[in-house]
Each structure stands twice: as C-alpha cells, then as structure tokens.
Design goal:
The structure is a single chain. By secondary structure, the protein is mostly beta strands. Helices cover 12% and strands 51% of the residues. Strands 1, 2, 3, 4, 5, 6, 7 and 8 form an 8-stranded antiparallel beta sheet that branches. It is globular.
Length: 113
Amino acid sequence: MTEQNDIKQLQEWLNRYTGTTLVIEKQELDDTDIVHFVLSGVDERSQDNEIDDYLESALLLRGEGRTQNAEGESVPVPGDTYEIITNDLRIDEINDEHVHLTTERATYKVSAK
C-alpha cells in the first residue's frame, strides 16, 4: 500500500471517531507522550504550504486535548490541534479499536475510547 493510501485510510478512520475521545500514544526516541484528545475534525496540511515553507505535511486533528507535562500535571494541548506528520507514514495495524502508525520520526498508537 502506498503512503498516500495509508494517509487516506488513516483520515477515514479518524473521521469515524469525530466527537470521540482518542488516546494517542506517541513514541519518539526515548520519549513517550500520551494525549487524551476529543476529536472535532481532521484537516490535511500539504508540504507545499504557502504560509510556511518549513512546515511538513501532516494530518491536523482539531479538538481539545490534554497531556501530562514533565511534572506530571495535566495540561492542555497547545492550539487545540494535534499533528501527525505524514512524511513516510505507514499503517502497521488498523481495526475498529485502534490504529498503529509509523512515520520517519515516531510511532503512534491511536485508540478510540
């Protein structure tokens, strides 16, 4: 399956859970972040963005989310947006409950609550 097909499949999976709380576990290097995110919509940002040439292509999850900071406090996700960079995106597993993703920078497990 091509990367573009994986992005489309992920976007369709996410759209099914609009209005639902998603638990997003992101593993990057030796760091794991867990975000609880109430999804209100999904947008796509292409790499050839006119506003900022430095922005990578991504799926932009819109909604409200919370994560724990280094002190263990629950803090809001900045800007009410969660980005999944789509460069080299690959779906490793997908079913009704969760999706496992790998990108060039991180691995994700997204679960519907």
